[in-house]
Amino acid sequence: MPTDPVGRFLAVLEPHRREAVAGMPREEQERLAAAWEEELGSDDELDTLDELSPPAAEAEAARRVMDREG
């Protein structure tokens, strides 16, 4: 499992979104990874899900970030 935020973010994305993000400039990848970490840390609903299934919470936060991006 990657340890840097961008690598962790890429790892939890759906395959088609992973390809799209991997093709972005590093700055954009870092911005999205930061938004993902913010989503994970700020949503109480995700905190509850994280207690039950950390991978599911990470995937849900990634989906939300990408949905907001368009």
From TrEMBL:
Residues 60-70 have a biased composition (Basic and acidic residues). Residues 40-70 are annotated as: Disordered. Keywords: Plasmid. Residues 40-50 have a biased composition (Acidic residues). This is Uncharacterized protein. It comes from Streptomyces yangpuensis.
